[in-house]
Amino acid sequence: MFAIQITLFLLICLLLALSVYFSFRSRREKEPAKRGLYSARMNICMGLMLVMIAVTQLFFFSESSFRRIFGTVLVLLGLFNLFAGIRNHGHFDRMLR
User: Fold this and answer.
1) Residue 62, phi then psi, degrees to nearest 5
2) What is residue 60's predicted lDDT score, i.e. its pLDDT?
3) How would you label 63-86 residue by residue, b for 16+ Cβ within 10 Å and e otherwise?
4) Residue 63: pLDDT above 90?
């Protein structure tokens, strides 16, 4: 159980770092297609990070209604970001080819 928590924590930190990296790359890029591609990658990383935080909240802490609501909201936000990022990544990837 502890190993799973540590693994999730490390994945959350990695995804946070990737989100920040792609955010800076998208803001500094001059070409609109590459800017959109980096922004889509940021959304994918952020969506995965939010889902991992929600899993941590829902399964590894004490039962409370606030944690359930918070975890559910994070899952919904994470899945939306993941979906939008995958959709936009495909769109901007086709623009670059």
Assistant:
1) -65, 155
2) 84
3) eeeebeeebeebbebbeebbebbe
4) no
pTM of the full structure? 0.94
Would you place residue 1 in the very low, low, confident or very high pLDDT band (cuts 50, 70, 90)? confident
Residues 54/78, Cβ–Cβ less than 8 Å: yes
Among residues 26, 27, 24, the alpha carbon closest in space to that of 37 is found at 26
CA 25 → CA 14, 30, 31, 36, distances in Å?
A: 16, 10, 11, 10
Sorting pLDDT into bands at 50, 70 and 90, what band is 43?
Answer: very high
The Cα–Cα gap between 76 and 72 comes to: 6
